[in-house]
Amino acid sequence: MKILNVNQIRELDQYTIQHEPIAPINLMERASEAFADWFVAKFPATRPVKIFCGLGNNGGDGMAVARMLLQLDYNVEVNVVRYAPRESDDCAHNHRRLKLLTNPNYIEKPQDMPALRHNEIVIDAILGSGLSRPTEGIVKTVIEAINRSPAMVISIDIASGLYADRPNQPGDVIVEPDYTLTFQLPKLAFLLPKNSRYVGNWQVLDIRLSRRYIDQTRTLYYYTNPEEARLLLRTRDRFSHKGTFGHALLLAGSYGKIGAALLASRACLRSGVGLLTVQTPRCGYDILQTNVPEAMCRPDQHEHVLTGMSDISGPDFSEYSAVGVGPGIGQSPETVSMLRGLLQSLRKPAVFDADALNILAKNRDLLGLLPERSILTPHPKEFERLTQRWENDYDKLEILQDFARRYDVVVVLKGAHTAIATPEGEVHFNSTGNPGLSTGGTGDVLTGVITALLAQGYDPVEASVLGVYSHGLAGDIAAANRGQIGLTATDVIEHLRWNM
Ligand SMILES: NC(=O)C1=CN([C@@H]2O[C@H](COP(=O)(O)OP(=O)(O)OC[C@H]3O[C@@H](n4cnc5c(N)ncnc54)[C@H](OP(=O)(O)O)[C@@H]3O)[C@@H](O)[C@H]2O)[C@@H](O)CC1
Ligand SMILES: Nc1ncnc2c1ncn2[C@@H]1O[C@H](COP(=O)(O)OP(=O)(O)O)[C@@H](O)[C@H]1O
Ligand SMILES: [K+]
């Protein structure tokens, strides 16, 4: 699913109006109906509703929604925040229609603000995607009162005061909704961690804006939805055999962190790899052979850390269809040398995680040796070590895109809505996953999953997008079964599903 910026959304609006064709006021009616349908399905008419409307089209949506709810016998009080002398044409039209049903309360000064109680629902339709400056004056006062109140808050399209595609400043006053119901496409702002409290639970309402405009409009930002993930997944040929699905090598573990190697190995096997070889330090050999009998093991010559050397045969990384390196490997000098040797001999994209990334950050000449289109899977701290501090989430996104372009790699920046940057500078935000995944070892699982997909011949971007999606989905299924709190990395492996 594409993510468009505010200018593109405005063009999409206009394109739909001209080419469907549909009158602007009818498009507003359609959007408001979509919101009202959602609302009515969720909340009974016994819950008192207070709607706060601005004077632009977002306010117009609010007034139309108020009319629809009133006609369904909801107890609705309409508050119009009069921050300017004029309304937009469509807002004025809906204002007139509304006044045939009810007398709105007009808020011009702080004393006009009604009290808000805990059983009430506030619908925020003060400002939408047309926000052009920080909130101030009476708008700011109303938003502060809404945020202080115990009422449930639902924003239409976007929280009033939140920019859809650029950073807010610290101190900006923004509605803090429980829900945001947005029209047609997600807004970039919803996917950035610092905005979490200005978004709440969000959902997209389909209002049938022009598919053709969306298809032909260029963007760098995407949101992976279930259909798109499903389309990436390949079916298996009836006559396939284990050789068809590649041979992966995982370089993982060190004394005290063999668990990381086990988790990555099990996840790799549960993600469809044909054959798996794991190289761990010698101390991991018995553990691995006992706990993951499906994997072959190359014990390292070293007892406690990885050197890459093994009695079984010298390091020849080229025989593997994909290599994944990093989980639990530590940063001993021997392991740094191993990584250097690996980078000098690798000819195919590989997966780099955890301490492999920390070693790259400390030995920056190694970055130049990364095979093109390799996959790096940092969490934010690891990414900062590889790059620099950022000022805000938009700045971080730019640093992410620049890094992926500069080193010709795919960067999987992990977290809620993991952001996958491609060498072309595109970013794919993930739609699955939950805070239950914030527990040790889930990153090791992801490395196993992505390495398995790469070994099966998926292109690195596809392997990353599909791997991250499936990993998050496994976390969601596991959380549905047992809740987020008790979730472990092993649960994620056990809930991987490839029949999406
Ligand atoms: N495309 C779609 O998907 C559809 C969109 N629809 C709806 O339209 C909404 C967008 O409408 P919109 O463009 O009228 O913007 P909105 O924010 O309501 O008002 C802008 C006005 O507020 C002003 N203003 C700005 N900042 C301010 C501030 N801090 N404090 C005070 N004033 C401020 C600004 O002033 P100006 O910048 O011009 O000086 C301008 O006059 C969208 O969110 C959705 O709800 C649906 O109806 C149909 C399908
Ligand atoms: N709040 C969250 N919502 C969704 N996914 C999350 C959240 N917190 C963590 N995750 C996911 O869990 C994984 C954690 O990886 P990482 O930080 O490397 O953990 P570890 O190093 O312990 O294995 C990543 O895939 C990340 O996207
Ligand atoms: K709003």
From TrEMBL:
Catalytic activity: (6R)-NADPHX = (6S)-NADPHX; (6S)-NADHX + ADP = AMP + phosphate + NADH + H(+); (6R)-NADHX = (6S)-NADHX; (6S)-NADPHX + ADP = AMP + phosphate + NADPH + H(+)
Keyword Isomerase appears in the UniProt entry: yes
Record protein name field: Bifunctional NAD(P)H-hydrate repair enzyme
Record-listed AMP binding positions: K414, G415, A416, H417, T418, G443
Annotated source species: Rudanella paleaurantiibacter
Molecular function per GO: ADP-dependent NAD(P)H-hydrate dehydratase activity; ATP binding; metal ion binding; NAD(P)HX epimerase activity
UniProt xrefs under InterPro entries: Carbohydrate_kinase_pred_CS (IPR017953), CARKD (IPR000631), Nnr (IPR030677), Ribokinase-like (IPR029056), YjeF_N_dom (IPR004443), YjeF_N_dom_sf (IPR036652)
Pfam families associated with the record: Carb_kinase, YjeF_N
Domain YjeF C-terminal: 225-500
Keywords recorded for this protein, A-Z: ATP-binding, Isomerase, Lyase, Metal-binding, Multifunctional enzyme, NAD, NADP, Nucleotide-binding, Potassium
Cofactor(s) needed for function: Mg(2+); K(+)
Gene: nnrE
UniProt-annotated binding residues for K(+): N58, D124, S160
Family annotation (NCBIfam families): yjeF_cterm, yjeF_nterm
Enzyme nomenclature, EC number: 4.2.1.136, 5.1.99.6
Family stated for the protein in its record: In the C-terminal section; belongs to the NnrD/CARKD family. In the N-terminal section; belongs to the NnrE/AIBP family.
